[in-house]
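Worked example

This section walks through a single chain of length 279. The input is the sequence exactly as stored; nothing has been trimmed or padded.
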Amino acid sequence: MVLSSLQRKLMYHPSTAPTLSVAKNRTILHRFPAAADVETESSGGAIIRGWWLRQHQTSAPLRPLVLLFHGNAGHRGGRQGWYELLDSIGCDILAIDYQGYGDSEGVPSQSAVESDAVAAWKLASTELGYRHRDIVVMGISLGGAAAVHVTSLQSQTGQPPAGLVTVATFSSMLEVARSYYPWFPVRAVLQDHYPSSERMRHVSAPLLHFHGDRDRVVKPKFGRRLFAEAPPESSCGVPRRWVTMAGTGHNDILLKSREIVLNELNEFVASVADVPAER
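Given that input, the structure is written out below as tokens.
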């Protein structure tokens, strides 16, 4: 129990807040006039909260939705750069905080994060009114594991998202942990394995993966192992695509490689989403 608690403190670094009401964030509202707070129930009855970021308040989606899962630190209030980039290519955004992050209830763990990802998908595809082919699932670092998980599940139901975007993410947490602690019996004590490579084999959606060649947190080889497990083509015939971000590490992606990410995402979303993105 002590080791489990310790490893989760090393793995998860949430920032919390009593409330993250979008109505109090002038920068977000200026960019997204129709932005709204959302919440839904996850595992164990925990309420997770997020932002639905839109330009237009309409009953039917006018733009594709990016279901965005952030990394292991902070909360949704610190992802302004990603929201601006996705808006600039004509997408709505659903950004949620995992259990124990931001103003979401609960405690972070693999089971919690995966349940939160599924709950966010259900929120987008039911209450918010997006069809599966309107949604691009995107995950950054740890969020990539959440994105792969929900995309794998949806692929196995025959209703995959329009696309999957993974950014600086890994084949499995077990492999990454072993690289940090080669002398430690990691498999015996690690609670949260995030076996994304195994799940990636079931993904039938088009895949776009970004990785910095100077990433020392999640080394490119772990991204390569994940990418290698994806089918060479999606069920609709789109080849998987790997994008190397030259001179880029783990936490400076938008600083060092914003233009390449912008251009690649713009082309990807335009090619896979059923709702035409605004241009």
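What to look for: The chain has a mean pLDDT of 93.
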